[in-house]
Specification:
Layout (H helix, E strand, L loop, with lengths): L4 E3 L3 E6 L5 H9 L12 E2 L3 E5 H8 L14 E5 L4 H6 L1 E2 L2 E2 L3 E7 L6 H12 L4 E6 L15 H4 L5 H20 L4 E3 L10 E5 L8 H20 E3 L5 E10 L3 E10 L1 E3 L3 E5 L4 E5 L2 E5 L12 E4 L1 E3 L2 E6 L11 E5 L2 H18 L1 E2 L5 E5 L2 H13 L4 E6 L4 H13 L6 E4 L5 H10 L3 E4 L2 H26 L4 E5 L6 E3 L4 E12 L4 E4 L4 E10 L2 E3 L2 E2 L3 E7 L12 E4 L3 H9 L7 H14 L10
Parallel strand pairs: 2-5, 2-8, 8-9, 9-11, 10-11, 24-25, 24-26, 26-27
Antiparallel strand pairs: 1-12, 3-4, 4-5, 6-7, 13-14, 13-22, 14-21, 15-20, 16-17, 16-22, 18-19, 18-21, 23-25, 28-30, 28-36, 29-30, 30-34, 30-35, 31-32, 31-36, 32-33, 32-35
Helix pairs in contact: 2-7, 10-11
Bound molecules: guanosine-5'-diphosphate (GDP).
Length: about 600
């Protein structure tokens, strides 16, 4: 039998910086009123809101011109949980559950950290998006007309307000340009495949929302049509939005179905923390319309089946260990169950890893966000020892501690959108294991990298304080530059190569020790260092001129093997050409006693 193919609703996610108006926009879309009831209303799903296409068409009115060609989509399905954390959590088909996204930017505040994070994430997932430049009603003197299309509303604004909007839009366009995006006000976009469309809106008053919906529908139809084709009869696939206890139902999962049809007698395979859960559906539930809820215990209606795209609550035994962000696959035969199990296990095992390598410990709230953070770390060349879902535990800290013994810079725990358990916090504090937590991936990594850099600087300063640099000097041949013969000897010298500092020991060509430089005087000032080319007077404790040293003689700063190893391995960048020559010359002297120096 030929399976029927149908285009489903695109799944839309809303992202953006905190307080830029994501929730307000979703609320406003939920309350969209259409004159004339025949258009039908907004449908509330579990965890999602559906805008039927008739509503979009009705709202569009003359804006229908914005897209060419027929719209065959049944509607738009907005995920109710906004934000980049939710977005990264919701994986599907190895990418994102969302087919398209709306990036909300407060036009008065412009780009903020979570705006940039959202853009990076959308880019990484190759998710097309539209920009909603929100809060235009805040522009001075703006005339508000609720629910008006932007293109009509803009005609009512005075010159000044229009100018201010333009200036702010240009600032946004400039920021997008810096990130490599060509962006423009939606009605000035020539080619939607190459330019990002910016729709000025007021989420609070509904201005511009008609255009936003029209564009989402138009773009989905045009560029996602193939992706949105589903086999209506096929077994369902979805992603868990949330795992929830419900009164009288036990643990349930809220799922967005993006493919096929889910029936109430299906068996489902569900992703858990470290296993695939196989269970039989007890009930499929949809929210009861608000005005029909008389008793809050009965907030749901049972349904026999749902077809993608849809948000549905599934009640079934054994869901306690189901994990948000994980896949749900319906199976109708033993063979299908086995296949689904394998697929889910593969997905878990590709993300939840324990390598035993020297590397950082990574924790995140869901499989999706763990994958996103791990990927980003790998791209930066930061090795991972363990990546797992869940809060940061004492075990994680102990594991980081063991890594630190081998490589201090990797002895850390990085957590995305997770909490730090109390005992973990205590151990980390006591043992000095750094924990980095946050909900912005790029900032998390930036913070860690800044810490690594600061630690390296600190270590370098410490090394510099204790290591001896190579130096080669020559006493002036003229007796006039012997200022004092002993206790201490004070002689005029020239630094031939490298550098000298008070405290270093000098040796002769034969390797024999001469004494310790007590002080260095350049002209009439005591200095802490003299470098190649400097002519200075030095006081040498323990040497007697005429017995141990002689005018015209070449002397070397004595180095230990440890000095050489530190200089060449850890402070290489601190050595200049002359230091390297001094090191070679000194090594030649030292090699007479110890073959180690032949290799320097
Ligand atoms: P979210 O954190 O991105 O979900 O932001 P919210 O939707 O919670 O909005 C943050 C604040 O901005 C709230 O006080 C909203 O009332 C306000 N807000 C959102 N959209 C608009 C808008 O279009 N105009 C104005 N004036 N305020 C808005």
């Amino acid at each position: 039998m030929e399976m029927t193919k149908r285009i489903r609703q695109p799944i839309i996610a809303v992202l953006g910086h905190v307080d830029h108006g994501k929730t307000t926009l979703l609320d406003r879309i939920r309350k969209t009123n259409v004159a004339g009831k025949e258009a039908g209303g907004i449908t509330q799903h579990i965890g999602a809101t559906e805008v039927p296409i008739d509503v979009v068409k009705k709202l569009a009115g003359p804006l229908i011109k914005l897209w060419k060609g027929e719209i065959k989509l049944p509607g738009l399905l907005f995920i109710d949980t906004p934000g980049h954390e939710a977005f990264t959590s919701l994986r599907a088909r190895g990418g994102s559950l969302a087919d398209l996204a709306v990036l909300v930017v407060d036009i008065n505040e412009g780009f903020q950290p979570q705006t940039i994070e959202s853009i990076e994430i959308l880019r990484r997932y190759r998710t097309p998006f539209i920009v909603a430049a929100n809060k235009i009603d805040r522009i001075k003197g703006w005339v508000v007309e609720e629910d008006e299309p932007f293109l009509i509303n803009i005609k009512k604004q005075d010159q000044r307000a229009v100018q201010e909007l333009e200036t702010k839009l240009w600032e946004l366009i400039g920021k997008f340009y810096e990130l490599g995006f060509q962006a423009n006000r939606f009605d000035r976009v020539q080619d939607f495949t190459r330019e990002l469309a910016i729709v000025p809106i007021s989420a609070k008053y509904g201005i511009g929302i008609p255009e936003l919906l029209v564009l989402i529908a138009g773009l989905s139809q045009k560029y996602l049509e193939q992706k949105l084709k589903i086999e209506v009869e096929g077994s369902a696939r979805g992603t868990i939005l949330e795992v929830r206890e419900e009164l009288g139902l036990g643990t349930t999962i809220d799922v967005i179905i993006y493919d096929g049809t889910l029936r109430k007698d299906d068996t489902i395979v569900v992703g858990g923390k470290d296993k695939a859960i196989v269970t039989k559906i007890r009930a499929l539930l949809k929210p009861k319309p608000l005005d029909e809820i008389r008793d809050p215990r009965f907030r749901f209606d049972q349904v026999d089946e749902v077809t993608a795209a849809a948000g549905v609550k599934i009640a079934a035994p054994g869901l306690e260990e189901a994990l948000a962000g994980s896949p749900v696959i319906a199976a109708r035969s033993e063979e299908e169950i086995e296949k689904a199990k394998q697929e889910i296990l593969n997905q878990i095992q590709s993300v939840v890893i324990s390598t035993g390598k020297i590397g950082v410990i990574v924790k995140a709230d869901t499989l999706g966000s763990l994958e996103a953070l791990s990927k980003e770390l790998q791209e930066k060349g930061i090795p991972i020892r363990k990546a797992d879902v869940g809060n940061i535990s004492k075990t994680d800290v102990m594991e980081a501690l063991s890594v630190r013994e081998e490589e201090p810079k990797y002895g850390v725990v990085l957590g995305f959108n997770v909490k730090v358990n109390e005992d973990a916090e205590e151990v980390a504090k006591a043992k000095g294991v750094p924990i980095f937590v946050g909900n912005i991936i790029y900032k998390l990594i930036e913070d860690y990298e800044a810490w690594v850099k600061a630690e390296e600087e600190k270590k370098k300063r410490e090394l510099l304080k204790n290591v001896t640099f190579p130096g080669v000097i020559r006493l002036y041949p003229d007796e006039r530059y012997v200022f004092r013969r002993s206790k201490p000897a004070i002689v005029g010298i020239e630094v031939l190569e490298g550098r000298i500092r008070p405290g270093v020991t000098l040796i002769k060509e034969t390797g024999e020790k001469v004494g310790v430089i007590k002080s260095i005087k350049n002209k009439n000032e005591f200095v802490q260092e003299a470098k190649k080319g400097d002519a200075v007077a030095i006081a040498i404790e323990g040497a007697i001129v005429g017995r141990h040293i002689h005018p015209g003689e070449t002397l070397y700063v004595d180095l230990t093997k440890n000095d050489v190893i530190i200089l060449l391995k850890q402070l290489k960048n601190e050595l200049d050409e002359s230091d390297l020559r001094a090191l070679k010359m000194t090594a030649r002297v030292k090699a007479k006693e110890d073959p180690f120096w032949k290799a320097v």
